[in-house]
Amino acid sequence: MINIYKANMRKLFKSKLYLIGLIIAVVVTHQFTDNLMGFGGVFNGMTLAGRMHFVSAAIVGFFTIYTPLFVCEEYSEGSIKNKFISGFTQKEMFGGGMMTQLSAAFIMWALHILAGVVAGARPSGAWWVDIITDFIAILGYVAVVYALSFRITKIVASAIISFVVMNVAFNTITFGNMFLMITKGVLYKIVTIAYNISCLGQWFVHTGLMGDDANPGTPVQIILSVCIIVSSIILGMTKLDKRDLK
Fold first, then answer.
1. Spatial CA neighbour of 100 closest among 143, 69, 137, 64
2. Exposure winner among 79, 93, 118, 180, fewest CB in 10 A?
3. How far apart are the first and last CA of the chain?
4. Contact (Cβ atoms closer than 8 angstroms) between residue 21 and residue 62
5. Average pLDDT value for residue range 136-152
6. Phi-psi region for residue 45, left (φ > 0), alpha (ψ -120 to 50) or beta?
7. CA torsion angle for 195, 140, 106, 25 (degrees, to 10)?
8. Helices in the chain by DSSP H: which ranges?
9. d(CA 128, CA 44)
10. Contact by Cβ (8 Å): 4, 91
């Protein structure tokens, strides 16, 4: 698995799309944080750290596109078959690929944070908790998209499913906002948990677009995200070696 991971990381840094994504992440974060884009209204009322955090949602959009392309390119180029012929199991390939995508997300997130700090953002201790919690949620999202892409294998179907996942995440927020307004008591707590399963739900909570009562607590959010990552790995590997690589 480690050898596959190393090979994938070399491929990652040769990917023009990924490198362009890193450049865009740095430039946009710096410009948005320092408000050089001239945004008014609510953005003027945000702190520099708040603006830096706000633009992090774009990472979700990037990996909705990039992850299925990266995975399906391996199928179309025959890399998966070559690795299989070389003696690697499909589970090893899945694990190495998952590690690669999570690493790719971490690198982009780290550069995003660095660009924000260079632009003047100085997150407090509480902000760091929010930012890191949201990042773990993003890792959960990337894990889901990767697991689906690895099993689907076809670029068109994989891209469609990835956008479906993003729309589910977005609609969880849309309908969640409504249910949070009309529920109370135990049902409200259940809706709050469901709201925070989505990485965008946690992002909404931590960027201040939702009230504090929509936050079930940082430990709960982290547990939810870790469960999503673990579930994606387990389900993604289930009966994987019995699959026929055509």
1. 143
2. 118
3. 22
4. yes
5. 92
6. alpha
7. -50
8. 2-12, 16-33, 48-54, 58-77, 79-85, 90-118, 125-152, 155-182, 185-197, 199-206, 218-237
9. 21
10. no
**CB-based burial, 175-202: b 16+ in 10 Å, e otherwise:** ebeeebeeeeeeebeebbebbbbbbbbb
Residue type, 33: T
Distance CA 152, CA 146 (A): 10
Q: Are the CB atoms for 12 and 20 separated by under 8 Å?
A: no
Lowest-confidence pick of 10-19, 153-162, 226-235: 153-162
Alpha-carbon Rg of the chain, whole angstroms?
19
pLDDT of residue 37: 62
pLDDT digit string (tens) for 172-209? Answer: 888 887 888 888 888 988 889 988 998 888 988 888 77
Which of 196, 199, 203 lies closest to 176 in space, CA to CA? 196
* Eight-state DSSP code of residue 119: T
Q: Which residue in 187, 17, 153, 174 sits closest to 73, CA to CA? A: 153
In the predicted model, is pLDDT for residue 40 greater than 50?
no
- Residues 162 and 149: their CA atoms lie apart, in Å, by 8
Q: How far is it, in rounded angstroms, from Cα 82 to Cα 246?
A: 12
